[in-house]
């Protein structure tokens, strides 16, 4: 039925106004439906007051392993804290019960950095490394020389049904003068290309000397193993005072790209380090001003499609507050990040991402610093 002329003009006017408002507002912000959010680790459940610091990996068998810090009495970083996990064998549709993956008595075990070694011929189905830290004092005290942080790993060859005894590697990956120390947080990585294929690379941060203004006592660093965890070597520090919690991914040719938090808060953006020798030293370091960040953690993976290798990075993409979970894409090895997609409006803090089958991305994230940890799945193609 054709509308009368006056009504037709009114409808056109309304549509024109909507279009003008849309263009003025900029690109439409995609918001993930609430139904797609799966609660993973919720506060005041399982005997814990708070869950924080998520990490996730996918095994060769297709099992998703999600980790978090379970904080017994409060959301404080230090205290009775252990690493817990849940697993999924159906691509995240359902999840198994909570299990403890690492602990340190009634003190702190955290900063889970899981990675699956898929290139050790002794373990054709892969071996999972869970690298993590323990502490016997709050971070502020450790930075003042009171207390210490230690670095460990455990392994599993049965999709995390059982774990080996912990192995301490502190002496290999932490200098005696370093005080504060943390791995990643989020997943670690294994190189698949180039002359160093098979290398396990873990990034993290440390502090040296007394605390300094604007977090300048912190510096990001790397460590790695070329023999499937038998020995570990310490890579160079980033030499960017204030670089802090970090994530890394592989660019073409075995290049390692490290993406770090700027603890100083000056840039309100991410710090990028590029290593052409597999994370042993850093050839260039710069501020990625096209990756806004409110001084928080982020996660990065590499993804290959018909156009080549893309780096995918998740973080709260708001310069002022920990909010607006965002997925950013680089097609030039981390130098520029022109494509950004808002995954979810509202509070968002730490996150970790994993490639799933069927060209999909698994995202585990903190809804807020103390509002619980959730999981969702998004197709990757529209994000590129």
- Count the domains: 1
Query: Helix coverage percent of residues?
Result: under 10%
Total beta-strand segments: 25
* CATH level-1 class: Mainly Beta
Outline type: globular
CATH architecture: 6 Propeller
Q: How would you state the average pLDDT, rounded?
A: 92
- Tally of DSSP helical segments: 3
List its salient traits.
25 strands; globular; 384 residues; mainly beta; five-stranded antiparallel sheet; Neuraminidase; four-stranded antiparallel sheet
Describe the structure.
The chain is mainly β. It has one domain: Neuraminidase (6 Propeller), CATH 2.120.10. It has three helices and 25 strands. Strand 13 and strand 14 form a beta hairpin. The two termini are 42 Å apart. The N terminus is likely disordered.
Task: Record the SSE blueprint.
Elements: H1 5-25, E1 38-41, E2 50-58, E3 64-71, E4 81-88, E5 99-102, E6 108-117, E7 127-135, H2 139-143, E8 149-156, E9 167-168, H3 170-173, E10 178-183, E11 189-190, E12 200-208, E13 218-225, E14 233-237, E15 243-251, E16 255-262, E17 269-275, E18 284-292, E19 299-305, E20 308-316, E21 323-330, E22 339-347, E23 351-356, E24 360-366, E25 373-379
Antiparallel strand pairs: 1-25, 2-3, 3-4, 4-5, 6-7, 7-8, 8-9, 10-12, 11-12, 12-13, 13-14, 15-16, 16-17, 17-18, 19-20, 20-21, 21-22, 23-24, 24-25
């Amino acid at each position: 039925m054709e509308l009368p002329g006056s009504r037709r003009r009114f409808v056109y006017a309304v549509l024109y106004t909507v279009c003008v408002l849309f263009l003025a507002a900029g690109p439409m912000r995609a918001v993930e439906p609430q139904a797609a959010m799966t609660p993973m680790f919720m506060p005041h459940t399982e005997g814990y007051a708070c869950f924080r610091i998520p990490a996730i990996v996918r095994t060769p068998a297709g099992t998703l392993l999600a980790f978090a810090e379970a904080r017994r009495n409060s959301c404080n970083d230090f205290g009775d804290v252990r690493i817990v996990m849940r697993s999924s064998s159906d691509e995240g549709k359902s999840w198994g019960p909570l299990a403890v993956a690492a602990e340190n008595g009634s003190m702190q075990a955290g900063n889970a950095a899981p990675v699956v070694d898929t290139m050790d011929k002794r373990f054709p189905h892969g071996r999972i490394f869970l690298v993590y830290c323990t502490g016997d004092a709050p971070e502020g005290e450790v930075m003042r020389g009171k207390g210490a942080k230690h670095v460990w790993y455990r392994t599993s060859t049965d999709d995390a049904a059982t774990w080996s005894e912990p192995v301490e590697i502190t002496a290999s990956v932490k200098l005696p003068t370093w005080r504060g120390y943390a791995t990643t947080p989020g997943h670690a990585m294994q190189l698949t290309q180039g002359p160093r294929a098979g290398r396990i690379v873990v990034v993290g941060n440390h502090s040296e000397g007394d605390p300094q203004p604007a977090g300048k006592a912190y510096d990001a660093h790397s460590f790695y193993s070329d023999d499937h965890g038998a020995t570990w070597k310490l890579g160079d520090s980033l030499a960017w005072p204030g670089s802090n919690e970090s994530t890394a991914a592989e660019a073409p040719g075995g290049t390692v790209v490290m993406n770090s938090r700027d603890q100083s808060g000056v840039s309100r953006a991410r710090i990028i380090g590029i290593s052409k020798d597999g994370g042993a030293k850093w050839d260039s370091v710069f501020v990625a001003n096209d990756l806004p960040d409110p001084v928080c953690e982020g996660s990065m993976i590499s993804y290959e499609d018909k156009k080549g290798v893309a780096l995918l990075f998740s973080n709260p993409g708001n310069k002022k507050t920990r909010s607006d979970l965002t997925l950013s894409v680089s097609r030039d090895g981390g130098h520029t990040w022109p494509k950004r997609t808002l995954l979810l409006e509202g509070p968002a803090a730490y996150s970790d991402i994993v490639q799933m089958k069927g060209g999909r991305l698994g995202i585990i994230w903190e809804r807020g610093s103390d509002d619980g940890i959730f999981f969702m799945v998004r197709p990757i193609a529209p994000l590129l």
